[in-house]
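Q: I'm writing a short explainer about Periplasmic or secreted lipoprotein for a general audience and would like to include a description of its predicted shape. Could you first generate the structure from this sequence?
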Amino acid sequence: MKSAVVQTITLCVASIISVSVFAQTAASDDIASSAPVSAAVSAPPSSAKARRAQNHLVQKNVRHALTATKGLNSSGISILAKNGVVTLVGSAPDEKQIARAASVAQGAAGVQRVDNKLKVFEPGN
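A: Of course. Here's the predicted structure. Afterward I'll give you a sentence or two in plain language.
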């Protein structure tokens, strides 16, 4: 019972983060084009502000790649990016979708490595 409560809380938090990231992405898409922005990632940016901007850009590129992939349900996936390392958290309908999401994320601009922490979505939990 306690594990189910912790899992439910974790999924709720992941959903909130995902919605927040999606809202930020949608707002910035109104200003810029919807095409992913390619940025050369040769060295990490020096200032904290530049690092945050780079991380946000990588998150945006991954989100765009996931949502543009036909047949991939990315609605339960949250994306965290830090210095080229992308962490996928949340859930997907099955193992095949989880593997596909990781593969698609790896191919997005600015991604050096993907840490896949996705779980199979179990209805009722």
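A: For your explainer, you could say: Residues 19-35 have pLDDT under 50 and may be disordered.
Q: Perfect, that's easy to follow.
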